[in-house]
């Protein structure tokens, strides 16, 4: 399926999702070649159709922060990391972010596992390949990967990893696992 | 936009004032990782300093997200500025999704090897 346009620069997107304060910025920072930047996205309520915006009619613009990182694989092949805004009311932004994305990393914190349910639901529904990275915070009770898989009701083919988002090697493992998973969904028996 | 920035007070001009209050334009459909390249056409009169800065940054292909970082402006503002530049034929934009919704196998394998080598 090579298009013959292989000389054109290729840019790929990986999304980093999960609840508020779960370590999205830290993960981006651990592996990005640039300092994780907080870039801002405009939010306009016109035509958005999100119920949660009820009550803020008349509000036309505000901004929402978004983490941004970059990994250059080689000249002309760059992977961009985008930390998705955690709050559900910004979900309409995810549609654009997830379009054409290579996949997503959902970071989970076992102390408040439910925080990552919405992200998992979202990517399952969209058919976006994702892995679950369980961030092992200091002092957090450690759970086995299997326990987390059961608690999240994940299909067997979805990778679940324990990680420390502060460590570069750990962040690297998570990214590699995601791209491998994305490759399997592309070429495997269940390929879309 | 340094002339609009005070070290202590921050920006003199709110970002959306730069684009005259617009929040959407023909640039709205620009993907964050769409690649922008200056066409080299002579700039039209009346370009703002931000648009001139974009043209300099885009002398080699650069992603929409990187332009926002480079200029330290919100992505929404950069999209409007880029939309204007595109309308004037000053930048060309190649959408990453034009090649298909997902990257192909060869590219993914290359990414895996590249990540391992980091």
Q: Please state the overall shape of chain B, judged from the principal axes of the Cα atoms.
A: globular
Strand order of the largest sheet of chain A: 2-3-4-1-5-6-7
What class would the helix/strand composition of chain A place it in? Answer: alpha/beta
Shape by Cα distribution of chain A: globular
Mean pLDDT score of chain B: 81
Q: Which strand order spans the largest sheet of chain B, edge to edge or round the barrel?
A: 4-3-5
Task: Give an account of the 3D structure.
The complex is a heterodimer of chains A (192) and B (118). With 192 residues, chain A is α/β, with parallel strands linked by helices. Helices cover 28% and strands 27% of the residues of chain A. Chain A has one domain (10-39, 65-186): P-loop containing nucleotide triphosphate hydrolases (Rossmann fold). A 7-stranded mixed sheet of chain A has the order 2-3-4-1-5-6-7, sandwiched between helices. In chain A, α4 links the parallel β6 (130-135) and β7 (160-163). In chain A, α1 (24-31) crosses α5 (168-187). Chain A is globular. With 118 residues, chain B is of the alpha+beta class. Chain B is built from 4 helices and 5 strands. In chain B, the strands form 2 sheets. In chain B, strands 4-3-5 form a 3-stranded antiparallel sheet. In chain B, strands 1-2 form a two-stranded antiparallel ribbon. Chain B starts with a strand and ends with a helix. The model of chain B has no long low-confidence stretch (mean pLDDT 81). The interface between A and B is large, with 48 and 40 residues. Chain B: This is DUF742 domain-containing protein.
């Amino acid at each position: 399926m090579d298009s013959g346009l292989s000389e054109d620069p290729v840019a790929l997107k990986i999304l980093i999702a999960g609840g508020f304060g779960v370590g999205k910025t830290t993960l981006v920072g651990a592996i990005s070649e640039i300092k994780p930047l907080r870039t801002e996205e405009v939010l306009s309520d016109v035509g958005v159709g999100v119920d949660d915006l009820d009550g803020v009619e008349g509000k036309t613009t505000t901004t929402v922060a978004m983490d941004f990182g970059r990994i250059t694989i080689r000249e002309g092949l760059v992977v961009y990391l985008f930390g998705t805004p955690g709050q559900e009311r910004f979900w309409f932004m995810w549609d654009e972010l997830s379009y054409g994305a290579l996949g997503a990393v959902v970071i989970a914190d076992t102390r408040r596992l439910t925080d990552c349910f919405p992200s998992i639901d979202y990517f399952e529904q969209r058919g976006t390949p994702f892995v679950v990275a369980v961030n092992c915070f200091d002092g957090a009770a450690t759970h086995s990967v299997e326990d987390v898989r059961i608690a999240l009701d994940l299909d067997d083919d979805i990778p679940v990893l324990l990680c420390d988002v502060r460590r570069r090697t750990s962040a690297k493992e998570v990214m590699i696992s995601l791209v491998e998973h994305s490759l399997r969904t592309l070429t495997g028996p269940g390929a879309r | 936009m340094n002339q609009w920035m005070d070290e202590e007070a921050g920006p003199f001009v709110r970002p959306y004032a730069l684009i005259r209050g617009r929040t959407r334009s023909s640039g709205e459909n620009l993907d964050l990782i769409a690649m922008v390249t200056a066409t080299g056409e002579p700039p039209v009169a009346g370009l703002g300093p931000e648009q001139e800065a974009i043209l300099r940054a885009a002398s080699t292909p650069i992603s929409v997200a990187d332009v926002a970082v480079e200029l330290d402006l919100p992505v929404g503002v950069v999209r409007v500025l880029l939309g204007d530049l595109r309308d004037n034929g000053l930048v060309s934009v190649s959408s990453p999704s034009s090649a298909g919704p997902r990257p192909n196998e060869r590219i993914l394998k290359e990414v895996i090897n590249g990540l391992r080598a980091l």
